[in-house]
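Page 42, continued from yesterday. The earlier attempt failed because a stray header line got pasted into the input along with the sequence. Redoing it now with the clean sequence only.
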Amino acid sequence: MEQQEIFMLAYLDRDIKITFLDNLFVIGLYVHYYYFNNVIAICPEEAHDDTRMLIPMTAIKKIEPWSLDDYELED
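This time it went through. Structure tokens are written below.
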């Protein structure tokens, strides 16, 4: 089997924010990229350890690094 380059290697095992085409977004830990169906797997911020969200690349508007330090919580 041919070895494939990891998609967005610098983001792997780090928190990212994915903005969808309709401007909704999800924040989570980037855990894998599946080449066979072109989807990103992330573990959402408030999920259990075994939860994975599969997001098709065609639904994504923007991917960016995320840090809780960048986020201001409202009272």
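Notes: The mean pLDDT is 81.
Reminder to self: strip header lines before submitting.
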